[in-house]
Amino acid sequence: MFTGIIEVVGIVDQILEKGTNKTFWITSSISEELRVDQSVSHNGVCLTIEEVVNNRHRVTAVKETLDKSNLNSILLNDRVNIERCLQFNGRLDGHLVQGHTDATGVCTGIKSENGSWVYDFKYPENFAALIVEKGSIALNGISLTVFNVGRNIFSIAVIPYTYEHTNLKDLKTGGSVNLEFDIIGKYVLRNKEIDTIK
Fold first, then answer.
1. How far apart, in whole angstroms, are the C-alpha atoms of residue 154 and residue 24?
2. What's the whole-model pTM score?
3. Which residues contact 18 (CB under 8 A, 6 or more apart)?
4. pLDDT tens digit string along 145-177?
5. Which of these, 14, 29, 96, lies nearest to 59 by C-alpha position?
6. Three-state SS for 106?
7. What distance in Å separates the CA atoms of residue 112 and residue 90, rounded to the nearest whole number?
8. How far apart, in whole angstroms, are the C-alpha atoms of residue 76 and residue 63?
């Protein structure tokens, strides 16, 4: 479980493919603190640490993960948002994030607001019931508040700190982002689905 508060941005310095899997070696300022078997969020995707060598760590994404996230399009030297799992003896600064990407969204516009930025996104319409005005979303693992919500569109506003300390500043129009919708909304929707089945 995560909070959507990014700790560091890592750099992908090696990509290996074996079968339908992709293995990533990532360099970051916290890599040497990680341990094998630990769950760590990479662009909002929960991946298991397989090896740690000095300031580098290795993770692997299987086909299901690659199909549902933007990890399949990551290139060498790309920057990824990294967050270690939530400790329940601390404050929950973002919102509850599982690290399970639901879908990818596409950036349709970026506007500078002279000190902040507004990003517009398009997302698959079949997830419309899981996103509400002023609700939370995890975007590339970042806990953000959505507004201008439509059937397949939404916007986010980004403060300078988030812009500088995540890979959002690398995002261009047409770029893909990982989306994880609020877990509470998922359970509410599932409960309604079960009622209709009965």
1. 31
2. 0.92
3. none
4. 999 999 999 999 999 999 999 999 999 999 999
5. 14
6. strand
7. 34
8. 19
Distance in angstroms (rounded) separating the CA atoms of residues 193 and 198 = 9
What is the chain's percent helix, strand, coil content, to nearest 5?
Answer: 20, 40, 35
HEC letters along 53-89: ECCEEEEEECHHHHHHCHHHHCCCCCEEEEEECCCCC
Query: Cα separation of 103 and 75, whole Å?
Result: 20
Do 18 and 26 meet the contact criterion of CB atoms below 8 Å apart?
A: no
Paired with 117 in beta bridges are 112, 158
CATH topology of domain 103-197: Elongation Factor Tu (Ef-tu); domain 3 (2.40.30)
State the DSSP H helix or E strand holding residue 184, giving kind and residue range, or none if neither: helix 183-197
Say if domain 8-84 classifies as CATH 2.102.10.10: no
Digit-coded pLDDT (tens) for 77-132: 999 999 999 888 777 788 989 999 999 999 999 999 999 999 999 999 999 999 99
| Spatial separation of the C-alpha atoms in residues 134 and 15, rounded to whole Å | 37
- Provide CATH 2.40.30.20 ranges for the chain: 8-84, 103-197
